Amino acid sequence: MEAKTNLFVLKDKINKTNDVMTLKFFPIEGGILPFISGQFVNVYFLDDRCGGQGKPYSISSIPDDDFLNITVKKIGKFSGALHDLKIGEKVKISEPQGYFYPENQMKNIVFLAGGIGITPFYSIIKNFFNKKIDKNIVLFYSNKTRDDAVFLNELKDLANNWSNFKIINVFTREKTEMSGVKNMETERIEVNMLKKYLKTLDGNYYFICGSIGFVRDLWKELKESNVQEDFIRVESFY
Q1: Would 170 disulfide with which of 99, 142, 187, 208, CB 3.0-4.6 Å?
Q2: Chain segment 205-215, per-residue pLDDT in tens
Q3: Handedness of CA 220, 234, 150, 91 (dihedral sign)
Q4: Which three-class secondary structure state does DSSP give residue 173?
């Protein structure tokens, strides 16, 4: 069954990198529909600028906010049209959907993010921090350069203020150490890197989000390292 849609108005546009923007929407009526950090919504334009089709975007705000943020990389016609939205324009947004989030029994969690795949993880991490949820979280976050890394400073602040959260930044086109960046790697994320920072691969729940190739390769490597499929969840961006 298709999710219901509701009208939202764009109130702010925040540039995060050269090609990534956070769009802040407020509901026309009522409040934000309840959601779990890690879920996504489908966004629809009110006109036919993209053929009337919607597209899914992970929610990058948290459930306690009175607004709904999506953080969008400008790739393709639809995301380009979102970047071009003017303050005050309205869109239709579906009810939150999806199951890409840690469940209560998951204690030790490893997030593997490629580029804009950070968006659901940012919402989850910030929400867990605010609510003082008892989880151990390690985030491996891959980007080409530091300038490409969305939420880099926000994640650094969370890590500095929460002993249960550690971030390993992976900059595949930065070949020198960078001031202010701890736990930095310059090679692609793979199982040996995970083993370097994790005590063991066993007993962790792995969430992978990024491009189809990024997700496919890491899922395959984890499976080949005897991580059971029940301990791996994936979500691809396109």
Answers
A1: 142
A2: 999 999 999 99
A3: positive
A4: coil
- Cα–chain center distance at 115: 9
The whole-angstrom separation of Cα 167 and Cα 151 is: 12
Can you tell me the distance from the alpha carbon of 220 to that of 98, in angstroms, rounded to the nearest whole number?
Answer: 22
Q: Are strands 108-114 and 205-211 parallel, antiparallel or unpaired?
A: parallel
187: helix, strand or coil: coil
Torsion angle, alpha carbons of 12, 18, 19, 24, to 10: -10
Q: How many residues can be counted in the chain?
A: 238
Give the closest residue to 92 by CA, choosing from 61, 35, 54. Answer: 54
What are the φ/ψ torsions at residue 81 (nearest 5 degrees)?
Answer: -65, -35
Nearest CA-CA partner of 172 in 184, 156, 181: 184
Q: Please tell me what DSSP assigns to residue 130.
A: H
| Cα gap 210→215, rounded to integer Å | 6
Q: Which long-range contacts (CB under 8 A, 24 or more apart) does 72-77 make?
A: 72/20, 72/21, 72/22, 72/23, 72/116, 73/19, 73/20, 73/115, 73/116, 74/19, 74/20, 74/21, 75/19, 77/50
Whose tokens are 């050269």? That residue is 18
pLDDT at 12 over 80: yes
Residue 143 pLDDT > 90: yes
pTM as predicted:
0.94
3-class SS of residue 211: strand
